[in-house]
Amino acid sequence: MTSTSSSVAPKVSVIIPAYNTAALIATCLDSVFAQTFRDFEVIVVNDGSPDTIQLEQVLQPYRSRIAYIPQENKRAAGARNTAIGKARGEFLAFLDSDDSWLPNHLQDQMILFETNPALDLVYADAAPVDNAESGKTFMEKWPADGPATFEALVVERCQIPVSTVVARKAAIIRAGLFDETLARCDDYDMWLRTAFFGANITYRRKVQARLYLGRPDSLGQSRASMTEAYWKILDKAAQTLPLSAEQRRVVERRAAEIKARYLIEQGKVQLRQQHPEKARELFAEANLHLHNLKLSIAVRSLQLAPRSASRLIAVWNRFSGAGRYDDHVA
């Protein structure tokens, strides 16, 4: 490992944003320092965490081996950008402070860059450490299908777990860094732009990280909020990127579909709150894009029997038109 005070720049800068993970970050850091690849520096950004006292106590034994940066809360994107601004490495390795790496992770990813110098970003499979629901790895639930192009990321044929990503710093800077206005899914937005601006992306179908998915305050916990974030990121891409006609068609079609999923989630909330008429309106708007038979039946049923909301909720829970994306944000 390259010392944080060394004048020799490391090959890799490990980027770790920390927020409310004092109980988990030691496992994260131990996995970094157990890497077989050693030419790296570690940058931990305390993003205005409410557990700062506990966090700094946990970090004390590591302080000689990390660069520690406290800042006011700027969310994950702002924390990552702060770390990138301090990073000395040619490559950036991203790791959330509640996740961890297997010992060969960095070595395996750097071999890909050595084998193919044209690569700009690589990622890998990961396994959940706290989700007994399925026991499936990330790529078993959301298989990578073909090259990880901009279009593949838009339609989610390829999905990228942030804690497995190693990327050339130049490619991230070329894409404009992380968008600090985004409360959620800033990593998805980053990978979209990185791919759009020409990054060559590939992946390993090998488990190289462990993802902690169970924190109740995790940004990924709210299905409706995550769906809304994906839709708005796609809408942002349509408005801000110089897309080709074909790319625009793909992005706008996918944005409309994800917006429909968001409307469905909002409709389900209205059902639970005993507002069947509002739910019907949301489902009907969603079905303008989805044209789904079961959704059409739900809309018609709500129109004919709006007071039967509790029974319709049970029916709705059997609705099977969600597809891979809804699984991802569950």
Shape: globular
Structural class by helix and strand composition: alpha/beta
The largest sheet, given as strand count, sense and whether it forms a barrel, is: 8 strands, mixed
Count, helices:
14
Number of domains: 2
**CATH fold label of the largest domain:** Spore Coat Polysaccharide Biosynthesis Protein SpsA, Chain A
Architecture per CATH nomenclature, i.e. the level-2 architecture of the largest domain: Alpha-Beta Complex
Taking all residues together, what is the mean pLDDT?
87
Helical content stands at 40-55%
Structure description:
This protein is of the alpha/beta class and 330 residues long. The protein has 2 domains: 12-220, Spore Coat Polysaccharide Biosynthesis Protein SpsA, Chain A, CATH 3.90.550; 224-328, no CATH class. The chain is built from 14 helices and 8 strands. It has helices at 25-33, 52-59, 75-86, 105-115, 138-141, 150-154, 169-174, 186-196, 223-240, 245-272, 276-290, 293-304, 309-316, 323-328, and strands spanning 12-18, 40-47, 67-71, 91-94, 100-101, 121-128, 166-168, 201-211. Strands 3-2-1-4-7-6-8-5 form an 8-stranded mixed beta sheet, with helices on both faces. Helix 8 packs parallel to helix 9 (223-240) and helix 10 runs antiparallel to helix 11 (276-290). The radius of gyration is 21 Å and the shape is globular. The two termini are 38 Å apart.
